[in-house]
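Quarterly update from the structural biology core.
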Amino acid sequence: MTECVTNEPERVRDDSTPTAPTTPTAPADQAAPTAPTALTETVEPPAGAEDAGAATAPFRAPDLHAPPPSPRRRPSTRVLRAVGRWTAVVAAFGVFCAGTAYGITRMERHEVPGLATENDGRWEYPELTLPALPSGSPRPFTSGNIAEIHHADLRDLLLPAPEGAKEDEGLPSPKGGWVTIEDYTGLYGKDDGEALRQRLVDDAVRHIAARGWTMPDGTRTSVHLLRFNSGTAAHYFHAEALAGGTTPGMDLAEAPESVLDEEWPIHARPENVLVYSYDEAKPRGKTHTRHAYLLAGDTLALVVQSREGTAPAVPYWQTVILQAQLLG
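Predicted structure, tokenized:
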């Protein structure tokens, strides 16, 4: 309650004459007190609050007549045990799955049940590595190598022989090495050989390297790499002498009738290598021959694979693709 104090002088009480009680009056400049609202108290804002523009919310006392809050119910022992059992099961299942996934990632494809694949005829080639370059020499398809020149030793760009390969008379050595123009032109018919030799001389072929081998199943393979002065010279030689649309512009002696290989996986080649694959047309003779030309910058490659009966496609494609990767 607010007490009102007046400035009037205290009156002397006369007990003899009863008088009615008087109600003190407030001065004119002082407002009459008002009855406070029940359980509401206004808190004056701190000094400087008005200058800072802060508004002070009124404080509200708790309702003394509100019912007390209900006590929290603790879960029963049965519920706690059920939660504990399921938590343990989930944790054990997670550990089992993680261990299984890790084990699968450490296994080879043929060791994983359901993913093992039978041998599809591919050969076991050594792991391929790009040869070292002379100091400061760029790779053939980098921005600073406009002529697309392979600065590595051409013999180091020959595809290595696969496991089980043996030397065969009439083929280049499995060790690989330099060969002459006549060694290369001998792969073609007699009438075309002389014209091709003169073309190579005119186009100034720089080097020719070759490697050959035979496999236990009788498949014979030879790889020849021809290096020119630039990528433009190599492409010109191929276009003028060897290209011919659906058939090669110059036939091999082993395959006088060849056509484009329609089953060749065209998307398997590297980005910077062009592959022209040919298959011997039917009816064939005693030997089946496949061959492909690969254009990669300043280097032209010829891959020839043949076998009595039928030359399988899978090892042929594998050989061509791996040789293209070394050149690209």
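The first helix runs from residue 49 to 52.
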